[in-house]
Amino acid sequence: MVGKIIRTMRRENNLSQEDLANKVFLGRTTLSDYEREKTDINFDSLEKIANVCGYDILFVNQKDKNKILTSKNIERKEI
Fold this sequence. Notes:
Blueprint: H1 2-12, H2 17-23, H3 28-35, H4 43-52, E1 58-60, E2 67-69, H5 70-73
Antiparallel strand pairs: 1-2
């Protein structure tokens, strides 16, 4: 599932795997492995990809529907 989301974000931004990999300091084959779900992606890499593609990551609590948006609710270092 995550691989399909990464591929969709990349394609919506008209980026090749090579272009996106360079922007987030990954190898093209690593990005390809993430998209094909051959390798699990760590959160930091996923967040960098999302930010480069103009997306935020949203967590929703299933019990109370509380939402946490990584770019607004969590203090973090610049990517």
